[in-house]
Amino acid sequence: MIPGEPVREDMVLPFQVEPYALRGRLVSLDAAVDAIVAVHAHPQPVARLQAEMLALAPCLAGALKFDGVFTLQVSGNGPLRTLMADVTSNGSLRGYAACDEDGVHRLVQTHGPRVPLSRLTGGGHMAFTVDQGRHAKRYQGIVALTGDGLVECTRAYFSNSEQLETDLTLAAARDETGAWRASALMVQRLPFAGGHGAPPGVSEEEYDEGWRTALILMGSCTPEELVDRTLTPEALLYRLFHETGVRVWPRQPVEARCRCSAERVERVLRSLSDAELRSMMQEGVVSVVCEFCKTERRYDAMALAELGCDHPVSGRMLQ
Q: How far apart are CA 261 and CA 94, in angstroms?
């Protein structure tokens, strides 16, 4: 490897901290997070939160065994109304945010560029959802927005809803070219015999001390280290946990990929009435923009007629 050459890739790296098999995941996003955040061009505080959310979603999803979509969504009552990221079980990641940019800029004038999440949302909740399709039960957990960031909300969720000891840290930054990168690091203490207690042959005191040590070591990781593109994820984990020992498992790739399609859009258009289609028309064209990837699909009257939509005005398909 050439010194200074970027070595990060978009992935989830599962690991365990010895000697008591504390479970962890390190998420590193480079091109994927920049592709998603850049296309939305939100004000800096919202863009940073969006980048953090995009790293947090696969970090949490990596703890689950599912075949479908894991969704993480913040819903607020302030300038930031919606912050969302979802990831499929095969690593396809997407996200979006909806905000009042003028309201965000006013908060920046008061609080600076790192506006607390609670100020941006004005209250609300965070939802954790696993959807495995119509043949499986949909799971959803909800926690009130507390604290000043996504980390505090996630800790509260695991503490209150899952009763699973969890700690994590997030970081997002732009490099010298303006490209976004983001990372998430999480460690969890799993229950043992009977759903609680220390592993066999280990006293409660030793187990508690091992957990406290792991938290101290993880807490020594700086935001700069988390998003350092010249430091491999494996090297970062070794730097943090080599004193106790750390074991890594194969990397799980993540990529920015939206699930929108012309087929889905056209299915919706065919379900609309002529009056509804007319109300959507601007200068003779129905334009549909995906909230996630911002892909625009445009249909004139002839294109709508070809889809089976009943519209009397002639025209042609716009490319």
A: 14
For residue 80, list its beta bridge partners. Answer: 99
- Distance (Å, rounded) from C-alpha 268 to C-alpha 178? 37
Both tokens assigned to 180: 């976004």
Distance CA 69, CA 99 (A): 24
Mean pLDDT of 265-277: 87
Amino acid identity of 194? G
The candidate with the shortest Cα–Cα distance to 55, out of 229, 231, 216, 180, is: 180
Q: Is 274 helix (H, G, I), strand (E, B) or coil?
A: helix
Q: Give CA angle at 245 (240, 249), nearest 5°.
A: 90
Q: Tell how strand 69-76 and strand 124-131 pair up.
A: antiparallel
Does pTM top 0.70 for this prediction? yes
**DSSP strand E in 43-131: where?**
69-76, 80-88, 92-99, 124-131
Residue 104 · residue 115 · CB < 8 Å: yes
Q: What is the pLDDT of residues 171-215, one digit of tens each?
A: 999 998 999 999 999 999 877 655 556 777 778 888 889 999 999
- 47-51, Cβ contacts within 8 angstroms, sequence gap of 24 or more: 47/180, 48/114, 48/172, 49/80, 49/83, 49/97, 49/117, 49/120, 49/150, 50/83, 50/85, 50/95, 50/96, 50/97, 51/172, 51/180, 51/181, 51/182
- Could you give the CA distance from residue 52 to residue 103 in angstroms, rounded to a whole number? 21
Dmax (CA) for the chain in angstroms is: 79
Q: Say how far apart CA 78 and CA 135 lie, in whole Å.
A: 36
**Residue that has been written with the tokens 């938290």 in this structure:** 215
Amino acid type, 103: G
Q: What type of residue is 208? A: D
Give the angle 196-201-206 at the CA atoms, nearest 5°: 70
Q: Alpha carbon of 180 to those of 176, 219, 249, 264, 283: distances in Å? A: 10, 23, 26, 30, 37
**Closest to 51 in 3D by CA, of 123, 149, 156:** 149
